[in-house]
């Protein structure tokens, strides 16, 4: 997540297993990739600032293993220009989110991998950013990343199934997908990020925001300006706090539970910024502005958005206009996801063909012939049946090129019907 408050330090810093055996498509020298215990994932769903369960003996043993000796060959660094694998990974992430309601922690994971970027450092990957380095120690052990080992554990099975997808892409894919599935905007992402290859590529601790600095507005600007982002982007990205919770035993903020969090979903408890903390909308701005509900969390960096003149103009706008918030958030999230990223191919790849973004099926929006009158009920039903026959449904978008084929078919039928009637 992009606001300082979600990066609150936790005393119970998450610990990962250390070196593990190389995965498919990687040389042994890449075995320093942290391997979070898979058993931990179930205990971490639905949490913004979760903590890891106690390490098992197996994890302790793994942490002590040394990488296998090699002949000095460079570590294989995965780039993910394989669109088919990316789409498969996206579907797998959809399933994970649907079953575990883990949108908040996946969004936070993507932000924390990208949010270390320092524009003053010219060398990749030392400049930080969206390069997958968060999977390595010591970066994953930084206080601001407490609990994110569990998010990586959630994605490990996806990585195993789709090894051509880099970790850097997987983190950003999961983050964008989590926003969209929570009801947020479609983010025009590009993929093909190259992975950082080892712990030596990790950034120093302290690049991510704090929750309660002495001067919240100044702190936010210091952190985000270092990344090359501006005031509008700071406020827009902060709006992702509409999702998730904070817990006092992990971040030092919030309550043990509130009337909105005492029953979960996921692990019950904590304080949320909004009433419906698994729905992406502009409630965060409305609730922070109102400050009427003591059961909702408002941290110093949240309040600063309405107290600082430079931030306030955008916070007021987003509180009043959700469409404007969605538009600016999508652009800011995309920009954040590309900070410090090295793409292969250099221009990146998209999961959607040009002009083929999913659209909702609304038969009444199409008119017949040149008369520009609404389709008859029979024609609507025919078009709808053909749409469903191709695999669509009223609740699931279908790619727009299918509509082209359907409309061509309908036009041909109409012409044949007219010619037949004229004979």
Summarize the structure.
By secondary structure, this protein is mainly α. The protein contains 14 helices and 4 strands. Residues 1-76 and 354-374 have low confidence and may be disordered.
Strand-helix topology:
Blueprint: H1 57-63, H2 83-100, H3 103-114, H4 148-161, H5 167-181, H6 216-227, H7 231-238, E1 245-246, H8 248-251, E2 271-272, H9 283-290, H10 300-307, H11 309-320, H12 322-337, E3 367-368, E4 373-374, H13 377-389, H14 400-422
Structural key phrases:
disordered N terminus; globular; two-stranded antiparallel ribbon; Peroxidase, domain 2; single chain; mainly alpha; two-stranded antiparallel sheet; Peroxidase, domain 1; 423 residues
- The tally of beta strands, per DSSP, is 4
Figure out the total of helices: 14
Category from helices, strands and their pairing? mainly alpha
Mean pLDDT: 76
Globular, elongated, flat, extended or rod-shaped: what is the shape? globular
CATH fold call of the largest domain: Peroxidase, domain 1
Q: Architecture of the largest domain in CATH?
A: Orthogonal Bundle
Sketch the major β-sheet: 2 strands, antiparallel
Number of domains: 3
CATH class of the largest domain: Mainly Alpha
For the largest sheet, list the strands in their spatial order: 1-2
Which regions have little confidence, pLDDT < 50, spanning 5+ residues?
1-76, 354-374
Distance between the termini: 66 Å
Give the strand content.
Answer: under 5%
Helix content bin: 40-55%
The run of helices and strands is HHHHHHHEHEHHHHEEHH
């Amino acid at each position: 997540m992009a606001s300082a408050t979600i990066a609150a330090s936790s005393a119970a810093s998450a610990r990962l297993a250390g070196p593990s055996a190389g995965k498919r498509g990687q040389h042994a020298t890449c075995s320093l990739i942290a391997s979070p215990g898979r058993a931990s994932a179930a205990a971490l769903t639905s949490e913004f600032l979760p903590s890891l369960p106690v390490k098992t003996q197996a994890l302790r043993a793994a942490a002590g293993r040394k990488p296998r000796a090699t002949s000095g060959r460079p570590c294989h660094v995965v780039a993910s220009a394989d669109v088919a694998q990316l789409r498969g990974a996206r579907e797998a992430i959809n399933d994970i989110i649907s079953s575990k309601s883990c949108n908040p922690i996946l969004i936070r994971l993507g932000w924390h991998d990208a949010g270390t970027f320092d524009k003053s450092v010219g060398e990749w990957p030392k400049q930080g950013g969206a390069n997958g380095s968060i999977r390595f120690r010591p970066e994953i052990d930084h206080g601001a990343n407490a609990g994110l080992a569990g998010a990586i554990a959630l994605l490990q099975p996806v990585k195993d199934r789709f090894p051509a997808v880099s970790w850097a892409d997987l983190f950003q894919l999961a983050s964008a997908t989590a926003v969209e599935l929570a009801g947020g905007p479609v983010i025009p992402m590009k993929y093909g990020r190259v992975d950082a290859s080892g712990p030596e590529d990790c950034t120093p601790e302290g690049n991510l925001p704090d929750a309660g600095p002495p001067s919240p507005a100044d702190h936010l600007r210091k952190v985000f300006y270092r990344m090359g982002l501006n005031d509008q982007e700071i406020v827009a990205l902060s709006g992702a706090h509409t999702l998730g919770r904070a817990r006092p035993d992990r971040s030092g903020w919030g309550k043990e539970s509130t009337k909105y969090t005492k029953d979960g979903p996921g692990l019950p408890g904590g304080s949320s910024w909004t009433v419906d903390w698994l729905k992406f909308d502009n409630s965060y701005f409305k609730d922070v502005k109102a400050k009427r509900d003591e059961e909702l969390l408002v941290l110093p960096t949240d309040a600063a958005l309405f107290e600082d003149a430079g931030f306030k103009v955008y916070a007021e706008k987003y509180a009043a206009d959700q469409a404007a918030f969605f538009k600016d958030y999508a652009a800011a999230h995309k920009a954040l996801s590309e900070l410090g990223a090295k793409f292969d191919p250099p221009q990146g790849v998209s999961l959607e063909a040009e002009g083929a973004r999913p659209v909702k099926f609304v038969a009444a929006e199409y008119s017949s012939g040149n008369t520009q009158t609404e389709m008859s009920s029979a024609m609507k039903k025919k078009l709808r049946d053909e749409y469903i026959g191709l695999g669509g449904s009223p609740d699931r978008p279908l790619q727009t090129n299918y509509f082209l084929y359907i409309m061509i078919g309908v036009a041909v039928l109409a012409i044949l019907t007219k010619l037949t009637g004229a004979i």
